[in-house]
Write a structure and sequence with these properties.
Layout: E1 5-9, H1 14-25, E2 29-34, E3 46-50, E4 69-72, H2 87-114, E5 118-123, H3 126-129, H4 136-156, E6 160-167, H5 182-189, H6 200-211, E7 222-225
Parallel strand pairs: 1-2, 1-4, 2-3, 4-5, 5-6, 6-7
Helix pairs in contact: 1-6, 2-4
Length: 234
């Protein structure tokens, strides 16, 4: 990745932190924005800024002049039956996943347009393309993200590429309540054709690919990193 300037929103924990480390290992300089400093703020090559995207916006003056890669990682796992879904939950998930992404990309857009190889990576979920029970709120907001990926890919091409990753269950702090016992882990792993739960490294590797010149002829795509669940039946 060389001397690229990468911006990671939500780069303090989990998948975001894994992406930050992967970018640093590839020689990039990384600017992160998140509510807390987390795991990566003190790493050499990282410039961290605190921001709550539900109540605030990114100060464009804190962004690099040129941005080669932009990753938006904040997300939610709000699961429950349809009968229990509240309007406040729908609004909260939409604010984090969609409104936050729109505002963050608006702030980054001038810097992205100055790059000769700009790439944007967003995050969806397997639950958008594969109907899963209990996923009303997260599927609704991430479905909007997939629509934005195609809209922005069309609007910003050929200057800026826009793609997304759609993970299945990944072993992160956000998913801890689903994986807090070995019995739960075994049951969840057995659901996947590849026989295991996703890892931070799985997602970080996919993000690194989408940020790199190796994916230079890809835009408007949703990359399923899901152990085969969305397309394979054993």
């Amino acid at each position: 990745m060389g001397k690229k300037q990468i911006v990671v929103v939500g780069g303090s924990h989990g998948i975001g932190a894994g992406i930050v480390r992967r970018c640093l290992d590839s020689g990039a300089t990384v600017t992160t924005f998140s509510r807390t400093a987390g795991e990566t703020a003190s790493l050499p090559g990282v410039q961290h800024h605190s921001v709550n995207l539900v109540s605030g916006t990114i100060d464009a003056s804190l962004l690099p002049d040129t941005i080669d890669g932009f990753v938006y990682c904040p997300g939610t796992i709000s699961l429950g039956p349809l009968r229990a879904v509240k309007a406040d939950l729908l609004r909260s998930d939409y604010e984090i996943n969609v409104v936050g992404a729109v505002g963050a990309l608006q702030a980054a857009l001038p810097g992205l347009k100055r790059s000769t190889e700009a790439s944007v990576v967003l995050f969806s979920t397997i639950a958008v393309a594969t109907g899963l029970p209990m996923h009303t709120s997260v599927a609704a907001s991430k479905g909007a993200i997939e629509a934005l990926v195609r809209t922005w890919a069309a609007e910003l091409s050929p200057k800026v590429r826009v793609n997304a990753i759609a993970p299945a269950l990944t072993d992160t702090p956000l998913a801890e309540k689903f994986l807090d016992r070995e019995e739960k882990r075994a049951v969840m792993a057995a659901k996947y054709p590849l026989g295991r739960i996703g890892t931070v490294e799985d997602m970080a590797a996919a993000a690194e690919f989408l940020l790199s010149s190796d994916s230079s002829w890809m835009t408007g795509q949703i990359l399923g990193i899901d152990g085969g669940m969305s397309s394979v039946r054993k």
